Amino acid sequence: MRVISRKERYGVFFVFLAVYISLAIYNLVNGSQWFFDNLVAIVFLVFMFLIARWLLLTPGSFIMFNLALTLHNLGTFGLYGTTLDGFFYDNIVHFFGALVAAWIIFNFVSARLHIKWQKDVKRTVVDEHKVVLIFLVFASVAMLGSVVELVEFGGFVFLGPGEGIFFVGSGDGGYNVEDFKMQYYDTMEDMIVNALGSFAGVLMFYRLRYRKGEWVRIGH
What we know:
Layout: H1 6-30, H2 35-51, H3 59-73, E1 83-84, E2 87-88, H4 89-112, E3 116-117, E4 120-124, H5 125-128, H6 130-159, H7 180-208, H8 214-217
Antiparallel strand pairs: 1-2, 3-4
Helix pairs in contact: 1-2, 1-3, 2-3, 3-4, 4-6, 4-7, 6-7
């Protein structure tokens, strides 16, 4: 496993920039409020592009990050009101987003804290405090998930009904006063799915990368 190269970074950047711009243009033509979500996606894309090497992103993790954003922005086509094999699209987006966040954070923290312990590469600060590391990853993903829920709550209070992350609409459990129960269920459901996604991300990284020691080499 290696940090993304300059050429790969630019390649992923321009591919997904084209995706977000295309969706934003579609939103403008159709008068959709999802335009703001795609605008935010472009901001996140630029930000992650600039810090990709510092964050120790691999080509795969940079692509996964953008796939998570794209999965959300496909709500442009009304997917948030649909289900896939019994799973609500909203749940799928939250699960995959949390999985990707956990993977990136676990990789970053593991690589940055790979300090050798007693000159033995197999015993590091990370190994000595593995439980603490995993807890920090879970806590970080939970914090990010809470920020998303706060943004949605702000949209509910100040902006009213609509589409996208800044407004209340499909995937949010309703808007009327009678729907406050559904709003509560939706928020708690999102946080539970975020936790499950982060658990899956931690488990996948631990089994596929951590146990192989690749997190030690990536920082070099």
